[in-house]
Structure to design on (1572 residues):
């Protein structure tokens, strides 16, 4: 029996079968379901990121559904766990795009997971909306073509000059060091920051990295101290930032820290007073005085998920971005007139929306660069003060403009 | 019900490949949305992972080596294909070949330290390797893209077709992967049921017996590593052309653990285990998503339950169940033995040239630390005779056997095999040179069949190399059939024909002894060393064994016999050497030995003055002079 | 030079963690010939339980010992119900996977209840660093190598001079002979697992104020400590502690003089090379194989 | 006469598929010195291991001191008063002689038996060589000294029955001439002893009664003095037949 199944014969058989039927395959054109798919982390060390974005997404969908839904239909969320692994994010994308047949997919925390989606999204013709991950290459593809990926979040290429500018403002001699995590996001930021420095006519005096889970950064910081670093541009998240602050305390070296959006509210909880004065680029803060609409969103999240208050919103910018993103999608679908992915994509270029993060007018433009809805003028500088991450104007650490 | 491996493979290939080949068209034929590209992608991913697990099954299930770094080999293959595609513009086929070969080479490098250690040490090396690999991938940003990975890998092409799994491309990539899975599955079969597979299983069950049968443990394990790595590399390359994006995150420690789980859960060492394991575990991770943040907990719980309920894995446990239910109460009977057939002439032959001694020991000495276990022993075994080596417990008999068979290196002295000094040669080479042995505490390959046990003995006599064996060229199949005939003849010789398909470990003890002798004979030995072959046998069995040994000697085989069972020594041996405290204390014919006072004392003890002490202490009298030892000595 | 001092001090701290956890692996191995892969999670529980109970309002002096006790009970239960039944079957892969599965469950349970984020544990010894030759270190960190060395000495004294300690050594040497002395080898084994769990959990709660307790902190530390125990020749406690501390220091010097990114690649390659040179571990004794 | 200290009936012991002991009956009276002899592999040691609780029998019963104990673990047996000097001695090589001896008294130390110190003294009187080596590691002793230590260690549990498995294994006759009388002396002092021995002449000389085992069964038994005169014993060892 086995001899009849020689590899060659088998292969030819299968090729033949495939070819014979390939020509007759009909192109599937179907309208999509009124659902929004999501792939993010629900388990592991970054499990909170998926849960946090979910707060805002659910609240936004509640608002929309209570107001009659989109195009008269109630819209649901289908959220899946990717365990931080790109291949699983792709699995989930197919699940969302094909099995659930959702009209759009939103993305999670991790840049590699978003980058891995390019091909599958193209293949399915499924629009994707990022709400946190800020990697430049998520939106600006090397191929020069981006059909389906959009984002309501920051972009590292724009964040870098923003961070460098504020770091330079706090470094009298312009001695800036870069400290970044060894992830796609951290590593991806290196060229952006270097370019931003070059634009200022300067070079980084130190560039150091650390692994996720590292807690002792004395080696890196010692080198930075020896290099005379005055301000650090930081790409990392709360946990490692805590390690950085404690290592700084240990070696008695405390330069200014200007961090990308990865640091959220938790650093205040763990590092306490050590975090005072750490500056974080972001799009939003739920602390302090809020506009009425933002306040209503906060109240809704607090009520629905039993939160204690803004201190439980550990990704302040991410949650705000996600809230706006859902409204932008809803508005675009109203313009599209039906649950059709192609039409939704076209409509995204037509949407104007007054969000809580910014006034999106229009949300997107047809250049690849402007598949990012939030432009640098909406970036804000936040600062830790007494364990709380506030807009810098509400702290004693100066205002964002200096 | 007994499904032969051959049928399993044939059925799986026909039904499985057929069903999988049809799957993409299900929706078209039955006009349903199923399968969507999500379902197909899951099937694709499982197929690719199954290839890794098949490879791991060869390593774990056959060679008994646990790798906790297999994800790294998989990732290496993926990166080789990805980097060659992006940087060198290499196409699908050359990329895949490079992935397989490159990973196999890496497997060989990894095997170097790995096969020399066992158990946890091996686990540590493979874990360390996996972590180093991921660390390099993550940090060598300029080469691997670091965590951002390598995106934009061009889709492969084959004969001008886009290798995409999408319907508009005729699911072509799906079929490519299916083809490789079928190929991997078929190769797994041809490998496991070849002499190489047998050698791997043999080394995992008894290193000593393997060496004694001329199977090099190191080489066999290295081979298992290399082949296993090749499979992982193949799967890695296929993954690259599926995902068109690779970064280190798909190849971390937890992925290695998952591969191992799939192997064990499916049933290590079984043919279908890797497929079942890969499907079960991967689907579980997809289905358990419903538990959200509790899903890993549910996953752990599921594993625990399966590991407890099915320690031999799903397929292994089902096989056991089937075997138990299907076991008809057929009495297996041992036929009359020894049973000589002409077929055996090819296996058991007299020594050519008739030298005066097949084996000669001259001044053989062995020391453990300060202790001299064997002290200046001389011995000569003439062709076609039975030479007995006897002595009380701890006299050094087994040590002598172990030196002759290459397990111990003598401190001094010469071991002349056909007048050539072979002292210090390693055991596998010694076996290949014609020294066959059995073990005091039978060292069978307990989980292998009785027939396979004997087939391992033929290992060093095969001509066909790995490639010919795997592809099953006619010459290789003919050779296998020949060895099989001879093995059956050997089983017939010891009366075990009826038990050929039984697990060797399940045999009654007496049968195990006989099997071990048959297996040793498969080496076509010049000299056969029997280490206490009668221990644990019944009277009847010993009678048969005596006839077997005599018959072998009659056919020209030279035998060195270590035995406690004195009846037997007296009955079969032509010459006896007696050891005590490592020294030769007597040598001669059985009759001479029997009445030698030194021998009696060595065996039996002399009249202990302790008897008098006891008598004094007890205040009674004991007739010491009547002690049997004294009488024996006086006779 | 200040930096060298800094690397040394930091290395002593992490080395102390490795040492305490590896010491547990060594103890468990000695009596059961078993590597218990839940040990990293027991380490995690030490930190996480203390933080959780402290956050629930228990004073630190009560939370810490209570966490230790819970971790020890958990370790003993793991031995009784998971290692013991599987160890009898001599199926090393089977129970290695079993302990891995239990480890997954412990970590996942902790993450689902405690949350995935690190949470702080205040300690007066981790508030202000002290300075030694220009290098700064929290007193809390120096506690770790000190406790590790003390634990090793205590273990030595305990095994040398107490009845139970001698029984442990007897079980480690020869279970059968120990039974013939009237020693219940099973009970001793469970006791040792509990003690090892206690050391692991102690490391977890001592390091928590410095690194913040998270539910994922057990995996890598557990894995590294296990490997350290193996390469040092697992049955020699003094060797295990020495190698662990040396490894921690070496890691910091690799970070300091080469790069942070090279740390693990160098460290683990070093381990492979050590095993090549010393197949039984650095301080391990060759076990004579009998034919 | 009171009930025997040890009564074994129908004992069966198996290692997987291999039956090592196949229906053995034997007994040891209180104060009696009983031997089991037989060639290698006859099942003597397996019988002893089952009696001492090192391995569980698959069938039969074992009454020790009036209680059914088949299947009890060895540590329970020690507590009940059965001490075994195992085959191969099983000294704790990396502990000192003193520590080895104290481990012998493990169960008594647990209940804080104050007589341990006196007993230690007594045992050291019996084996003066051990006194000289009290602080040496067990592993550094010679084979004979290790055997002394093994016996002494067994005595320190203050057993009702001492089971000695292959006292002569690997030891020179000189040492045996030293050791066997000590066993006889202990027995004379009232200790019940069950001795398993391959060196039949030594065993026959010191014991009162002897069982001869072959292939997992008792082949014959009787007063040692009688067996010592019985040709069948020697022939069983040397393979000689009466008709030969």
């Amino acid at each position: 029996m086995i001899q009849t199944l020689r590899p060659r014969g088998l292969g030819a058989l299968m090729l033949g079968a495939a070819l014979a039927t390939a020509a007759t395959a009909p192109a599937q054109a179907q309208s999509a379901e009124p659902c929004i798919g999501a792939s993010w982390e629900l388990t592991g060390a970054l499990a909170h990121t998926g849960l946090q974005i979910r707060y805002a997404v659910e609240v936004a969908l509640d608002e929309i559904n209570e107001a009659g839904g989109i195009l008269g239909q109630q819209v649901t969320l289908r959220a899946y766990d990717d365990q931080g692994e790109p291949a699983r994010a792709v699995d989930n994308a197919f699940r969302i795009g094909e099995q659930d047949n959702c009209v759009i997919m939103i993305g999670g925390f991790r840049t590699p997971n978003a980058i891995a989606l390019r091909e599958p999204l193209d293949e399915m013709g499924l629009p994707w909306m990022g709400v946190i991950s800020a990697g430049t290459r998520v939106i600006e593809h090397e191929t020069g073509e981006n059909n389906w990926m959009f984002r309501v979040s920051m972009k590292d290429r724009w964040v870098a000059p923003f961070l460098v500018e504020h770091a330079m403002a706090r470094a009298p001699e312009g001695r800036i060091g870069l400290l970044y995590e060894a992830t796609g996001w951290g590593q991806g930021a290196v060229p952006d920051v270097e370019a931003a420095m070059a634009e200022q006519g300067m070079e980084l005096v130190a560039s150091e990295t650390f692994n996720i889970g590292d807690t002792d950064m004395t080696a890196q910081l010692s080198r930075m101290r020896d290099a005379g670093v005055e301000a650090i541009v930081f790409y990392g998240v709360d946990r490692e930032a805590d390690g950085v602050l404690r290592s700084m305390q240990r070696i008695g070296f405390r330069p200014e820290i200007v961090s990308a959006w990865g640091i959220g509210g938790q650093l205040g909880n763990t590092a306490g007073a050590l975090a005072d004065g750490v500056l974080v680029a972001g799009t939003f803060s739920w602390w302090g005085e809020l506009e009425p609409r933002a306040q209503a969103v906060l109240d809704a999240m607090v009520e629905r998920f039993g939160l204690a208050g803004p201190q439980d919103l550990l990704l302040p910018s991410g949650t705000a971005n996600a809230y706006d993103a859902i409204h932008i999608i809803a508005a675009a679908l109203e313009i599209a007139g039906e649950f059709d992915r192609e039409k939704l994509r076209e409509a995204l270029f037509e949407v104007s929306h007054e969000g809580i993060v910014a006034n999106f007018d229009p949300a997107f433009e047809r250049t690849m660069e402007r598949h990012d809805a939030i432009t640098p003028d909406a970036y804000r500088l936040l600062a830790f003060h007494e364990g709380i991450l506030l807009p810098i104007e509400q702290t004693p650490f100066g205002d964002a403009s200096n | 019900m007994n499904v032969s491996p051959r049928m399993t493979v044939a059925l799986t290939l026909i039904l499985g490949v057929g069903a999988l080949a049809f799957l993409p068209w299900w929706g078209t034929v039955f006009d349903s949305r199923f399968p969507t590209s999500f379902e197909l992608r899951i099937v694709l991913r499982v197929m690719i992972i199954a290839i890794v697990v098949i490879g791991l099954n060869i390593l774990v299930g056959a060679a008994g080596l646990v790798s906790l770094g297999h994800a790294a080999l998989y990732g290496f293959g993926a990166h080789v294909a990805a980097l060659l595609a992006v940087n060198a513009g290499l196409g699908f086929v050359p990329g895949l070949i490079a992935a397989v070969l490159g990973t196999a080479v890496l497997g060989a490098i990894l095997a170097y330290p790995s096969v020399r250690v066992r158990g946890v040490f091996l686990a540590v090396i493979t874990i360390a390797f996996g972590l180093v690999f991921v660390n390099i991938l993550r940090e060598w940003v300029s080469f691997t893209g670091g965590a951002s990975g390598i995106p934009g890998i061009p889709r492969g092409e084959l004969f001008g077709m886009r290798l995409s799994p999408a319907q508009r491309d005729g699911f072509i990539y799906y079929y490519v992967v299916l083809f490789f899975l079928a190929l991997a599955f078929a190769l797994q079969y041809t490998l496991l049921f070849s002499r190489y597979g047998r050698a791997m299983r043999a080394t995992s069950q008894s290193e000593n017996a393997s060496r004694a049968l001329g199977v090099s443990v190191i080489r066999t394990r290295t081979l298992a590593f290399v082949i296993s790595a090749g499979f992982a590399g193949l799967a890695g390359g296929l993954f690259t052309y599926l995902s068109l994006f690779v970064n280190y995150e798909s190849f971390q420690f937890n992925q290695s653990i998952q591969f191992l789980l799939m192997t064990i859960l499916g049933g290590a060492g079984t043919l279908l285990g890797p497929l079942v394991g890969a499907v079960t575990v991967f689907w579980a991770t997809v289905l358990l998503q419903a538990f959200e943040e509790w899903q890993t907990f549910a996953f752990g719980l599921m594993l625990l339950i399966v590991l407890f309920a099915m320690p031999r894995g799903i397929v292994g446990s089902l096989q056991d169940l089937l075997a138990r239910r299907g076991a008809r109460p057929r009495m297996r009977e041992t036929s009359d033995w020894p049973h000589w057939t002409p077929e055996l002439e090819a296996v058991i032959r007299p020594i050519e040239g008739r030298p005066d001694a097949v084996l000669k020991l001259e001044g053989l000495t062995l020391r453990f630390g300060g202790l001299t276990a064997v002290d200046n022993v001389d011995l000569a075994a003439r062709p076609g005779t039975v030479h007995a080596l006897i002595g009380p417990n701890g006299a050094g008999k087994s040590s002598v056997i172990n030196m002759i068979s290459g397990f111990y290196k003598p401190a001094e002295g010469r071991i002349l095999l056909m007048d050539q000094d072979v002292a210090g040669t390693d055991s596998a080479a010694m076996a290949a040179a014609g020294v066959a042995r059995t073990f005091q505490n039978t060292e069978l390959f307990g989980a292998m069949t009785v027939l396979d046990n004997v087939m391992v003995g033929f290992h060093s006599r095969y001509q066909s190399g790995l490639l010919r064996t795997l592809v099953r060229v006619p010459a290789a199949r003919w050779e296998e059939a020949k060895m099989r005939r001879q093995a059956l003849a050997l089983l017939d010789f010891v009366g075990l024909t009826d038990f050929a398909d039984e697990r060797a470990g399940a045999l009654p003890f007496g049968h195990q002894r006989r099997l071990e002798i048959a297996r040793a004979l498969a080496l076509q030995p010049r000299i056969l060393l029997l280490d206490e072959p009668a221990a644990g046998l019944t009277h009847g069995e010993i009678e048969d064994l005596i006839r077997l040994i005599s018959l072998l000697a009659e056919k020209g085989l030279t035998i060195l016999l270590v035995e406690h069972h004195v009846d037997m020594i007296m009955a079969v041996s032509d010459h006896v050497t007696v050891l005590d405290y490592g020294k030769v204390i007597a040598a001669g014919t059985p009759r001479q030995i029997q009445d030698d006072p030194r021998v009696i004392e060595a065996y039996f003890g002399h009249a202990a003055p302790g008897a008098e002490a006891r008598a004094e202490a007890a205040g009674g009298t004991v007739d010491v002079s009547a002690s049997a030892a004294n009488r024996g000595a006086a006779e | 030079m200040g930096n060298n001092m800094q690397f040394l001090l930091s290395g002593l701290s992490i080395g102390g963690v490795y040492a305490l956890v590896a010491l547990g692996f060594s103890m468990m191995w000695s009596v059961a010939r078993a590597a218990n892969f839940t040990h990293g999670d027991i380490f995690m529980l030490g930190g996480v339980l203390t933080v959780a109970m402290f956050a629930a309002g228990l004073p630190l002096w009560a939370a810490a010992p209570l966490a230790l006790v819970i971790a020890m009970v958990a370790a003993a239960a793991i031995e009784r119900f998971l290692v013991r039944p599987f160890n009898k079957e001599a199926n090393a892969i089977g129970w290695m996977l079993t302990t891995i599965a239990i480890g997954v469950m412990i970590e996942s349970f902790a993450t689902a209840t405690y949350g995935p984020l690190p949470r702080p544990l205040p300690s007066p010894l981790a508030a202000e660093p002290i300075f030694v030759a220009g290098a700064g270190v929290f007193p809390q960190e120096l506690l770790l190598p000190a406790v590790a060395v003390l634990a090793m000495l205590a273990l030595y004294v305990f095994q040398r001079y107490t009845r139970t300690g001698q029984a442990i050594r007897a079980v480690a040497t020869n279970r059968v002979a120990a039974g013939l002395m009237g020693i219940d080898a099973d009970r001793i084994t469970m006791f040792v697992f509990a003690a090892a769990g206690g050391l692991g959990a102690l490391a977890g709660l001592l390091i928590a104020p410095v690194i913040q307790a998270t539910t994922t902190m057990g995996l890598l530390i557990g894995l590294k400590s296990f490997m350290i125990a193996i390469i040092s020749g697992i049955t020699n406690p003094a060797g295990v502690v020495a190698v662990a501390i040396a490894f921690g220091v070496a890691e910091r010097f690799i970070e300091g003089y080469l790069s942070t990114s090279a740390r693990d690649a160098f460290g683990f390659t070093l381990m492979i090379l050590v095993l090549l040179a010393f197949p039984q571990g650095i301080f391990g004794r060759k076990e004579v194989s009998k034919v | 006469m009171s009930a025997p200290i040890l009564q074994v009936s129908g004992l069966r012991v198996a290692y997987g598929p291999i039956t090592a002991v196949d229906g053995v009956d034997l007994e040891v009276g209180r104060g009696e010195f009983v031997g089991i002899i037989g060639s290698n592999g006859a099942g003597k040691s397996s019988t002893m291991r089952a009696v001492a609780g090192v391995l569980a029998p698959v069938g039969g019963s074992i009454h020790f001191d009036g209680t059914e104990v088949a299947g009890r673990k060895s540590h329970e047996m020690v507590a009940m008063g059965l001490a075994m000097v195992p085959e191969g001695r099983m000294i704790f090589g990396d502990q000192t002689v003193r520590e080895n001896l104290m481990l012998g008294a493990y169960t008594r130390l647990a209940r804080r038996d104050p007589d341990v110190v006196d007993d230690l003294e007594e045992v050291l009187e019996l084996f003066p060589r051990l006194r000289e080596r009290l602080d040496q590691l067990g592993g550094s002793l010679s084979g004979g000294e290790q055997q002394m230590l093994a016996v002494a260690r067994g005595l320190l549990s203050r057993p009702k029955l001492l089971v000695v498995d292959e006292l002569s294994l690997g030891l020179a006759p000189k040492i045996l001439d030293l050791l066997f009388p000590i066993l006889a002396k202990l027995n004379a002092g009232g200790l019940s002893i069950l001795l398993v021995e391959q060196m039949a002449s030594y065993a026959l000389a010191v014991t009162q009664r002897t069982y001869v085992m072959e292939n997992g069964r008792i082949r014959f038994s009787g007063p040692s003095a009688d067996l010592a005169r019985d040709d069948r014993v020697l022939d069983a060892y040397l393979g000689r037949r009466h008709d030969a």
